Structures are given as C-alpha cells and as structure tokens.
Amino acid sequence: MKKVLSAILAGTLAMSLLVGCGGSGGSDSGNSGNGGGAGGSGTTTTAAAGGDSSSNTSTGGQEITIGTSTDLTSLDPHNHNDTVSAYATRHIYNNLVRMTEDNEFVGDLAESWEYKDDVTVEFTLKEGVKFHDGSVLTAEDVKFSLESQKESAKVGHLVSMVESVEVVDDTHFIIHLNTPSNALISSLNHSGCAIFSKAHVEKILAEGKNIEDEPMGTGPYKFENWTPGASFSLVKNPDYFDPERAAQNDRLIFKVIPENSARTIALENGEVDLLVNVPSTDAQKIRDNDKLALDEYVSTHVEYFTVNHSKAPFDDIRVRQALSYAINKDDIVIASMNGEASTFDNYIGAAAIGYYDVVTKYEYNPEKAKELLAEAGVADGFTFNCYVAGATRATSATVIQANLAELGITMNIEQMEASTFYEKTGNGEHDSCLAGWVANAEPDNTYRPLFVSADTGAGGNRSYYKNPEVDKLVDDASVNLDKAAVQKDYETILKTLSDDAVWVPLYSPTGMLARQAGLQGVTPSAIGMHDFYSVHY
Length: 537
Fold this sequence. Notes:
Layout: H1 2-19, E1 28-29, E2 45-46, H2 53-56, E3 63-68, H3 83-92, E4 97-99, E5 105-107, E6 110-117, E7 120-125, H4 139-150, E8 162-169, E9 172-177, H5 184-187, H6 198-206, E10 221-227, E11 231-236, E12 251-256, H7 260-268, E13 274-275, H8 283-287, E14 292-297, E15 301-307, H9 317-326, H10 329-337, E16 341-343, H11 366-375, E17 383-388, H12 391-405, E18 410-415, H13 418-426, E19 432-438, H14 444-451, H15 468-479, H16 483-499, E20 503-509, E21 511-516
Parallel strand pairs: 1-19, 3-12, 3-13, 17-18
Antiparallel strand pairs: 2-10, 4-5, 6-7, 7-9, 8-9, 10-11, 11-12, 13-21, 14-21, 15-19, 15-20, 16-20
C-alpha cells in the first residue's frame, strides 16, 4: 500500500505539472449520460429566445448557486447525454412523461396515454402549455422533436422503437412502434427526449444557428447565459404551466469549480449554496460543520475502467481478464474516494432495475494476471494511453498505472476537459479510459448505449465492444412481454459482459449532496437526476 500511495503522489505531482488541475469528471447517465461538444473557450452565450435577456438579469429574489466540478457540454438535449448538461436542459425543457420519487411514470406534457395494441400508443397533451416565447405547445412540436431525436447519434437509441408519429389534432397524437417495447415510456422520461418548439428550431436553423445557441422550451426556467468553463445560469419562468412544480427560487447559477478542495471552501464561505459533486475527502469535514448539511443517498452510479476492444492487444480476452486481476480496487477506493464508496464488480448499479448478482468477481491477483498475459504473448508488457477527465478519475488512474507497472505494462495518463474527453473517446482515439455511468429506471437505457454494437463511440459504447449475442439479448429484453424471460435476458447479458471482461468495474460512490444547513427543498435522486426547482431558503 505504501508503494502504491507513493506512486500515486508522484504521479499526481507529475500530472499537475503537465496538465494542471481538473475536477472530478461528470458521469455518463442512463438518464443523461454521454457526450457532446462544448462551446468555444472564453465566449459567452446569452439567450435571445423567450424574452430580452437583459430583463432576465433583474428578477431579484433568491438566487441559488450550485457548485459543480465540470462544465456542461451542450445546451441541445439531442447533442448531449451527460449529467451536468442535463442539469440545464431538464430545467429548460419538459418531456412527455416524468418519473416520480417513487420511480413511477406520470404525465409531464402528456395528460394521458393509452396502448391501443402492442405497437400503437395514443397520447393526449395537456392544453394551453406555452413555450418561453408565448407560443402554445401542439402535437406538431412533439412529432418534430421525436423525429429530430431519431437522427441523433447520442440519444437516438432512446426512440429507436418509434416508427412514426401521427398527428391527430393539436392535442392528440399516436406513436406507432416498429416493435413492441418495454422501454418506450421510460425512454420518453430521458432528458434526450425533450420537446422543442418546431417553429423556433426551424427559425434559428434557417438563420445558420444551432439549437444550443438559443435553447427554449416549456420548462420552469429560461436559459440565461453560459460562460464555458466558468458558469451557466437559468432564470425562473413565471408562466410555468404546472404550479406544483414551479420554481421556488428566482435563479439557478451553476458555478464550475474543478478543484475538489476549492469546491468545499466555496461551500464553507457561502460562495455556493449547494454542491452536487462533493469531494469525498471533505465529506467528514462537512458532516462536522453545524453550518452545513450532508445529504447521503444510495446511488446507481458506477465508476469503471475500460479498454478499446477494437485495438490490440485489448481485442484478446486474456489481456482484458488480466487487467481485471491486476487492478486493486480497494486501493482505488482509499486513494480516490477516501473510503466513501464500495468496490464493485457489476455493470449496473445495485440500486438499479436490471441488476442481478451473477457476474464473475475478479479478485486482485497479480500472479494470475501474469499468467494470462504470458498466454496472450505479451509477457514483456506493452504501452498504451488512458484518457481521463477530472481530478478524482486522474487519481484512480494513478493507482491503476502503479498496479500495471508491477507487470511491466506502461499506461500513459492523458487528462483533459470533459468535452474533449467525450469527443476523443467518441471518435475512438483512446486505448483506454476511465468513466462513470448512472443508471436510470429502465435497464435498456443502460445496456443499449453501453454495450450494443450499433452504439459504439458517441452513442455511449466507448469500449467498442461488439457481441451479436448481447445485441440480440438487449433487443429481446426490450420487446419481450414475458417478465421472466426479460429477467433471464438481463442475467445472461451481465454474465456475458463479465466473462468477456468488457470493463473493470471499480466502485460505486456513496451518493452525497452538500448544502448550507438552512437550504430547503433538496431531494437527492438515486439516478442523479436532481431537481432544483424546489430548492429555497
């Protein structure tokens, strides 16, 4: 342990000299999890839609400042699938359905829906819902949004079962499916299924702009501004259609603070009201401070190390299995999370639907790793890169680096901003990377983007793993109406992923939100989809 920690300290010092400090990178998510590009550094994007932005800056009242470790990557719900970007877009836009705290799906923009048969679902929209520019939501907006989403490389998989959308009248439409689907309703809850204004999007595209240049929805907040790398803010929508979910504060300001200790200091001195990325090293300090509060919860968050299966020697299962035996997860939990996590062997969070304890548990065994490397013909080791975003994952990478060095393997760590990480891994430039995933209520939204062949790269499968058997099982689980058969599919998927050593699952962090003690209305979400509309003093 002394040797490993010494290597960590040396590696961290070297990395700080090479690349500077970074935050704990944002995680991918079944709700909002995988990528997109960020705006140019040093520029400010200001909303022009939904009213004069200058009037947005003079609302007064309560402003809630939220500290986050990384910046958003895009303000277009169809161009991102990461948690931090969803903090913005989920409050700007609405979906047809939403999930309650009890994991039940209820209408959001939809008043109701009815299955006419296995492949025909008729929806009724709530009447009089207005976009931020005052125009009224219609079924044409829904049709336009879902058809646009189907073209997205990042979230198109969520509506792959949708064949077409038939508009009946302004408040009624029918979704025709190309196959029965167990995932439709839960997918429509995903932030990637946000509903746009057709007229607004067509207008800004005609002007040569992108959706993220002027994001506008029906949500409880209007977009105010984004200064990449620094902050983004949302201002209360006073005309929100749902009074029970209307904003209880006047403005949300998300402040990007990459360095872990700096985030805690910002909370301690009152610079921020709420932290969504709580540094594990400071968790006890926050618990002991009577001016602060730490809200702990069970999370579906999983951190993992994966290699690019399309590149040698990682196309050899023996090499991947060797890495699974070579990495000491206990050291990673101590070094990266200060013990505020549990080591993990699975591919989906234990609190998530679709979790079954059927996987192979690769215990730390360097000798076994050496045997497998020798069988694979790489006993003398090899060199490869590892892409990471954020300080916490960089620390995990230094532990892995030290473990592999004992086997003669050289892993070069390349730390970068989150947007760069998503772009490069989406393009398959990496040999390996560290990443995270937060599963939502629908297992298909985890297994499909992460492990199906069609979603390699930007779609979410950064392992570039391709297995026709897994593809078929994921497809069957999404359409099979026999619950026992679906469970068997998911158990087989997990066992196959584990046998193939697709990842090295590392740990599951304890879910934590830190806040000023007087802040109310904070409700943690096990799937990372925290709502901030109810936060107030």
